[in-house]
Design a protein that fits this description.
Elements lengths: L5 H24 L4 H43 L5 H43 L3 H8 L17 H7 L4
Helix pairs in contact: 1-2, 1-3, 2-3
């Protein structure tokens, strides 16, 4: 069983409050603001240095490379939002490498289950074609000869199944 000390308590409280605030912002506004992620990111380095010294700073760096790096690659290829990248970047500094790895694995599993559940519900409700058309859109208009202008951020966010 993990040891309950000041560092563990601070980590659990900050990570819980941060992820809850980010979730509320993401659901309400479909974005996670920098004014939330940047201070948490900076304080994560302070936390690691104060409680875990140089080893903690190194672990935070590896956690950041894993968490931010993986989601940054997904964002570049269009598989996620920028807020997800910022959220994971800030959180991974607090968590370090091993806990970040667990979060990446478990959150991927949760998103996959939620997406499959969404698809199953749309199939059984009879709205599968409408759902597929909305969420698999590419921003191209195939009904006209003239290509539609680039898809807006709002249109992309509207296609996301899970905030």
């Amino acid at each position: 069983m993990p040891e309950l000390n000041a560092a563990s308590i601070v980590l659990v409280v900050v990570a819980s409050l941060f992820t809850a605030a980010a979730a509320v912002c993401d659901v309400r506004e479909r974005r996670i603001p920098n004014k939330l992620t940047l201070p948490v990111f900076a304080l994560g380095w302070v936390y690691q240095g104060a409680f875990n010294g140089w080893d903690g700073l190194a672990d935070a760096g590896l956690g950041f490379l894993l968490g931010f790096g993986m989601l940054f690659v997904l964002w570049v290829i269009g598989g996620g939002g920028g807020g997800d990248v910022k959220l994971m970047g800030a959180l991974s500094v607090w968590l370090g490498f091993h806990l970040t790895l667990l979060v990446v694995i478990s959150s991927t599993a949760i998103v996959l289950l939620a997406t499959f559940g969404f698809i199953i519900v749309s199939v059984f409700s009879g709205n599968f074609r409408k759902t597929a058309k909305k969420h698999l859109a590419t921003g191209k208009d195939h009904t006209k000869r003239q290509a539609k202008e680039r898809e807006t951020t709002e249109e992309k966010q509207g296609r996301r199944v899970v905030a």
